[in-house]
Amino acid sequence: MLEGKNVNLRVQEKEDLPLVAEWLNDPEFFGVFSPLRQQSKTELEKGFDKVTPETKWFFIEKKDGSKIGGISHFPAGKLLEIGYALIPSERGKGYCTEAAKIMVDYLFLAKDIVRIQTHIDPRNIASWKVIEKAGFKKEGTVRKSSFFKGEWRDMLLYSILREEWKEPKILTKTISRE
Ligand SMILES: CC(C)(COP(=O)(O)OP(=O)(O)OC[C@H]1O[C@@H](n2cnc3c(N)ncnc32)[C@H](O)[C@@H]1OP(=O)(O)O)[C@@H](O)C(=O)NCCC(=O)NCCS
Fold first, then answer.
1. What are the extents of the domains in the chain?
2. Rounded to an integer, what distance in angstroms lies between the CA atom of residue 144 and that of residue 167?
3. Which residue's alpha carbon is at the smallest distance from atom 26 of ligand 1?
4. Homologous superfamily of 2-165 in CATH?
5. Helix, strand or coil, per DSSP, at residue 34
6. How far is the CA of 37 from the centre of ligand 1 (A)?
7. Pick from 62, 106, 118, 151: most CB atoms within 10 A?
8. Ligand 1 — pocket residues by CB below 6 A?
9. Buried b / exposed e across 132-146, counting CB within 10 Å, b at 16+?
10. Closest ligand 1 atom to the C-alpha of 86?
11. Ligand 1 centroid to residue 82 C-alpha, Å
């Protein structure tokens, strides 16, 4: 488990997949700026069995252990990308900003990578505020790069480089390499 001040990140286990399936299939969970998903528990189980060290899903948990969302890292070619979502009732309280900071600390401590990136719909103000507060910089617009809700959309590309991160901001525990 990765411990922050107000939230922790806990790796998802196979027995968590029913809850994950419930969230993934709920359009409210990913909100209006993300693709519509429909995934069965069987598909999720197959995906779970193929997980590599480059792909990992974490629950965002409050300190009382309640699960309020998810944050993941996954390969984008040879680079690592992150994605995240919270249940609607827990948004706007700073939890995802903290989760993103924990994830950045974890990835730079645990992996020999030089950058972490993410793509965000330009209208998703909450998401780009989260990522800017976590130290990411906007690189530019990747035109017509994501298909969802029936059309090809421009996305903002954000990244943080290892030299910009410098040192852990939240994680203080030593983490061994995966
Ligand atoms: C994006 C998301 C994860 C943000 O998480 P969060 O915990 O609510 O974010 P935080 O509370 O840490 O901070 C969000 C910031 O955006 C602001 N914000 C939140 N909702 C907003 C909205 N609808 N419009 C404008 N600003 C908004 C908050 O006020 C806060 O700003 P501040 O730092 O100036 O106070 C959450 O809204 C979500 O789950 N959305 C649906 C899934 C999604 O879009 N994922 C990202 C895909 S790229």
1. 2-165
2. 35
3. 126
4. Gcn5-related N-acetyltransferase (GNAT) (3.40.630.30)
5. coil
6. 20
7. 118
8. 30-31, 33-34, 84-86, 91-97, 120, 124-127, 129-130
9. eebbbeeeeeeeeeb
10. 39
11. 15
In angstroms, what is the span from residue 177 Cα to ligand 1's centroid?
A: 31
Q: In 3D, which of 124, 155, 121, 153 has the Cα closest to residue 140?
A: 155
**Along the 178 residues of the chain, how does pLDDT read in single tens digits?**
999 999 999 999 999 999 999 999 999 999 999 888 888 989 988 888 887 888 899 999 999 999 999 999 999 988 999 999 999 999 999 999 999 999 999 999 999 999 999 999 999 999 999 999 999 999 999 999 999 889 999 999 999 999 999 888 887 655 554 5
Look up residue 47 and give its two tokens: 């995906």
The answer to whether the CB of 118 falls within 8 A of the CB of 107 is no
Measure the CA–CA gap between 137 and 139, rounded to whole angstroms.
Answer: 6
pTM: 0.93
- From ligand 1's centre to the CA of 21, what distance in Å? 22
- Nearest protein Cα to ligand 1, atom 10: 94
Q: How far apart are the first and last CA of the chain?
A: 13
Tokens coding 85: 């979502």
Cβ contact 28:88 at 8 Å: yes
Residue 122 gets which letter from DSSP?
T
